[in-house]
Amino acid sequence: MTDVEVSVVLPAYNEADTIERTVSVTLETLADFLPDDAFEVIVAEDGCDDRTPEIATRLAAEDDRVRHIHSDRRLGRGGALEYAFERAEGDTLVYFDTDLATDMSHLEELVESVRSGEYDVATGSRWMPENRADRPAKRGVPSIGYNTLVRTILRSDLRDHQCGFKAFDRQAFEVLGPAVEDEHWFWDTELLVKAQRRGFRVKEFPVDWEPKGDSKVDIVRDVFGMGSQILRTWWELSVSPRITRRVSLGAGTALVAVALLLMTQYLNPQTVLNEMAGADPALVGASAVVYALSWPLRGARYRDILESMGFRERWDFLTGAVFISQTGNLVFPARAGDAVRAYVVKARRSIPYPSGFASLAVERVFDLLTITLLAGVVMMGLAATGSADTLIGAVTGDVAGGDAAASGQTAIAVAAFVGLAAIGAVVAIVASARTDRNLVRRTVGRLSDDSYADYVAGVVERFVGDVQTVAGDGRSFARVGLASLAIWALDVVTALLVFAAFGYALTPSLVAVGFFAVSVGNLAKVLPLTPGGVGLYEGAFTVIVVPLTPAGIGVATALSVAIVDHAVKNAVTIVGGVVSMAWLNVSLTKAVEESRTAADVEPEATD
pTM of the full predicted structure? Predict the structure, then answer.
């Protein structure tokens, strides 16, 4: 048994110039209101590369009340705190910033608020009406803006979420700690918000605070990091609990219905239905067979990608995994099905989650490049024949009509953005592969020198490295590239057979237009604006086909072809997904849930 009641953690990263004084002041202040054996001071040294570890080790050797907890790698501010709290001995857990910006005269109130049992969580505040901190504008304005966003979006009652002066009851922390996902600067904000949501007693009290050192708005951490974490927490607390299987299916069905209504508002729906009823069912069935032939190619391509990353699997199993994930994208919002594939290969073949997600990302790059290439080649052909001006007229509404043009404009804008982004990403990856310099970390480093930037750079580096791995294997790159061309060529042939089912001869000009319409339609539906891209695909397809086909295909017919083409492809996907789920014994809803979690690897540490 230990007599320690209060554990104070000092998160330290490269604090060689200040840590000794901070520990001394902390010990003196605690000794003023606690017995010497009732508290401990823990230096949570977070992978420092200066003399902080040596100083912390010496301080721990000189005073039994001081402990040094070391991490061999950067954990981030939140990760370092959580790691230290888990190893602390006290029932009251406290931390404050090592720059001692908060007046230490408030330490007794902070500790006793929790130690007395009156509150579960206590936090100092620089923005209480009775004691507002005098902060420079470059610190105060971002802080007020950030806290306003947290209060508004996450419905928090607190005024200051990031004051580095907090205390927790151990039992409360054992509940809240595992629930906090962020490991960096958003950690304490998330903990305070979830403490309120779970009914813990939270005390916010005013403190005297004086800024120490210089500060700046950090682009990666403050804009990208904090903003994305606020949205992620809002989704987790306010949206995700309401997304049941029934709600997902209902919302997906409603969105499809709305998309179809919006798409046909400028047409007589009966005209579209009549056009569809006149299609040759035998040719529509043949289009489904052709599209089904592309799926074994998808499985073989995925096999080649995984093999280049060191994993050997059978193409038939991987075809089933692709079927299941694509079916998930038709059922669940925000392309949640993409993560399902990582779950399937992890659960059935023990391929780690990071490798599963990386292989999926590599596949997406090849898909986008292939579709962009097909669209670009045909676009150059249109420009050479003078048809590009006609296309521009369609997009601006001069040919297809206002509402049809509006649908096409949105789809083509999305397609252009996705295509350019794919080309830009590959150019950057190739440039990085051909130099010894770390362009990813160098670029991110110019935007930010914060630890969160290291985290972002690490994620990007892993993705770039996986793409380079596949690209560096000449045979694998060739196989994956050729398979991608074959897959999307079959996608186009499916649409051309649907044209034939509506009675149109497959002339060279119609084939060229079909390639362009299908390619742009597939680029348009990459962003998850509707389930399965319904609406965007049809809009892009229609607004391209109407002005460019010499046979003068009307809006109603072009829309009917697009609907049947997309319906055939989605039907084949769903049938294949259902069969694959039965074959591999995979529950789609369970796969979506399980794919959201990944095991944390605990870093090595010394105490």
Answer: 0.54
